[in-house]
Design brief:
Layout: H1 2-19, H2 32-43, E1 52-63, E2 68-79, H3 83-100, H4 122-132
Helix pairs in contact: 2-3
């Protein structure tokens, strides 16, 4: 019985994790996140605008027979912009970043800077990245860091 509970918990956690996964990681910077988001929208992999939740707390005093007490109520409102407006905004931002990006003339690929954290040796990282992403090319390694 206990093993069934553990298996169920692991399976439920895996499902919850995959549902909450974002299509574009948070660690892409300098406009690369906008370029990737725009590309995913054009491919049809992102089909809705992200919703933003705003929470507001209101306090209303009420009188009781013994003393005054304040009650707080929490209200959550969600403002969702239309997907067309979101798509237009991302396309405009991506175009702005793309116009300033350094690209390889022959392929149109973007030059990105990868900053490893040092947990994996640079040679191993290069081999793994090349095997995982064969179309990616590496041009410069600074081993002084």
């Amino acid at each position: 019985m206990r093993t069934h509970t553990v298996i169920f918990t692991v399976a439920l956690s895996a499902i919850a994790f995959s549902v909450s996964a974002k299509p574009v990681p948070d660690n892409l910077g300098n406009g690369l996140d906008k370029l990737v988001t725009n590309n995913l929208i054009q491919q049809g992999k992102i089909i809705s605008a992200p919703s933003t939740g705003q929470t507001s707390v209101t306090t209303s005093p009420t009188k009781s027979t013994k003393k005054s007490a304040a009650r707080s109520s929490v209200t959550t409102t969600t403002s969702t912009q239309s997907f067309n407006a979101y798509k237009t905004m991302i396309a405009k931002q991506a175009t702005s970043y793309a116009s300033r990006a350094i690209t390889e003339t022959a392929t149109g690929n973007y030059l990105v800077q990868i900053m490893p954290n040092g947990l994996v040796p640079l040679i191993t990282l290069n081999a793994t990245m090349q095997a995982t992403y064969p179309s990616m090319s590496f041009h410069y390694f600074d081993q002084s860091y």
